[in-house]
Design a protein that fits this description.
The chain is an all-alpha fold. Helix content is 74%, strand content 0%. The protein contains 7 helices and no strands. Helix 1 runs parallel beside helix 4. The chain is globular.
């Protein structure tokens, strides 16, 4: 069963959230991604011609004095590159950490015989979003991929926020003594929500 031994009585049950709303984020993300990949135009369809590159080279030639003044400015792009690389590494590490958190939640739900719903589909969303960023929108074929990734993180933040609210209503003392008390699940989901928030921040910060 997708869900078992979970309280019912209103529409926003933990079962409804885990089988409908959480995987809905993945389905909407993947559907939009495919549509954009099919209909979108390449972001970088043209490359500078050799002649243009030559012109730029000639125009930017400078005297030794000018080159001396330009050297300190050259440090800024290198510094930005290092910061960008550091943020990128953090981004992918957080995606990996989120996958591990999802595995933890699924394992604990299984051990408590509560069913896992369709939570495993979250792995697909996380892996796809990381791949889309790594390939820069499948090498420019997906127009607006940064906004799409950002929308995914925000949607997951909202859904997990709803989960926390509904589990809090259920009571932090619920399932006490079981292999997955509600208090523990609230803690796990809160950590995941925080990670999604950082991923959204990095998605905005990282331009490519």
């Amino acid at each position: 069963m997708l869900c078992a031994n979970r309280p019912e009585g209103h529409i926003l049950t933990s079962c409804f959230l885990d089988t409908i709303l959480v995987p809905l984020c993945t389905w909407l993300y993947l559907t939009t991604l495919v549509v954009l990949a099919i209909t979108g135009t390449r972001l970088y369809p043209h490359k500078p011609s050799d002649a243009l590159r030559g012109t730029r080279f000639r125009d930017t030639k400078a005297t030794p004095e000018a080159e001396t003044h330009e050297l300190p400015a050259g440090e800024q792009p290198r510094r930005r590159t290092k910061i960008h690389k550091a943020f990128s590494i953090i981004f992918y590490l957080l995606v990996l950490a989120q996958i591990l958190m999802c595995i933890l939640e699924i394992v604990r739900l299984s051990l408590a015989n509560l069913g896992v719903g369709l939570l495993p589909f979250t792995f697909v969303a996380l892996a796809t979003a990381a791949a889309v960023r790594f390939t820069k929108g499948l090498h420019g074929r997906v127009y607006g991929w940064r906004y799409l990734n950002l929308a995914l993180w925000i949607a997951l933040i909202v859904i997990n926020g709803v989960k926390i609210a509904e589990e809090t209503k259920e009571g932090t003392g619920a399932r006490k003594g079981s292999k997955y008390p509600v208090a523990d699940e609230i803690t796990d989901v809160s950590v995941m929500e925080g990670v999604y928030a950082v991923l959204a921040f990095l998605e905005v910060t990282l331009r490519a």
